[in-house]
TrEMBL record:
GO molecular-function term, one example from the UniProt record: peroxiredoxin activity
Domain Carboxymuconolactone decarboxylase-like: 40-120
A Pfam entry, by short name: CMD
Taxonomic source organism: Xanthomarina gelatinilytica
InterPro entries, per database record: AhpD-like, CMD-like
Gene3D superfamilies to which the protein is assigned, alphabetical: AhpD-like
Record-linked SUPFAM superfamilies: AhpD-like
Name of protein: Putative fusion protein
Length: 196
């Protein structure tokens, strides 16, 4: 049972209108947003930040951004966000082989060296204490420019917020996210846990 019950999608019409963004991303409005709207300024600010962070400004694709989100969520243990990130990666065109082998991104041939550098950055930046060091920096700069690194850290930071929000809230996970979680992550032990 969640810490705070999500409100109806009709509760705040401005949030509802902004949340249409998630219908493309996930196919539904997340329960996390429906909970945030108890304070509509938070839900609206969050959605606008999400839209800004996920906008494509360079070579960091929508699919890669969602895989970065998955690595971050996996590092922190948020099962809700793991399922959402893998679902969004699928919906934004991640290759089937990448989705099936996300756990092995460091060695699987479906991932390029540039993608590995980005995903390792996500893992290091999501740890407490933070593990970003000169090696991570050097690998990033071999493949990405500073604007693209800012985009990546935007995703990692956004999911740092979401991981804390949803794991603390025990947000109930939506059916579509459960389906994607089971399909791509279940073979490695993913389950809904407290998000049921």
């Amino acid at each position: 049972m969640p810490l705070v019950t999500p409100l109806s999608a009709e509760h705040d019409l401005e949030t509802k209108e902004l949340a249409e963004f998630f219908n493309e991303t996930l196919g539904f409005c997340p329960n996390s947003v429906l909970t945030m709207q108890r304070r509509p300024a938070i839900s609206k600010a969050f959605i606008n930040l999400n839209k800004a962070v996920m906008a494509n400004e360079g070579r960091v694709t929508s699919a890669l951004k969602r895989m970065i989100a998955w690595v971050s969520s996996n590092a922190t243990g948020c099962r809700y966000c793991q399922a959402h990130a893998i679902r969004a990666a699928e919906r934004y065109g991640a290759e089937q082989e990448q989705l099936d082998n996300i756990w092995e991104y460091r060695t699987h041939p479906a991932f390029s060296e540039a993608e590995r550098a980005a995903l390792d950055f996500s893992l290091a930046a999501s740890q407490v204490p933070n593990a970003v060091d000169e090696t991570i920096k050097s690998r990033l700069y071999e493949h990405w420019n500073e604007g693209e690194i800012v985009e990546m850290l935007g995703v990692i930071s956004l999911f740092g917020y979401l991981n804390r929000w949803n794991d603390s809230m025990g947000t109930s996970i939506e059916e579509g996210a459960v389906e994607s979680g089971n399909k791509y992550l279940g073979k490695h032990g993913w389950e809904t846990g407290k998000h049921a």
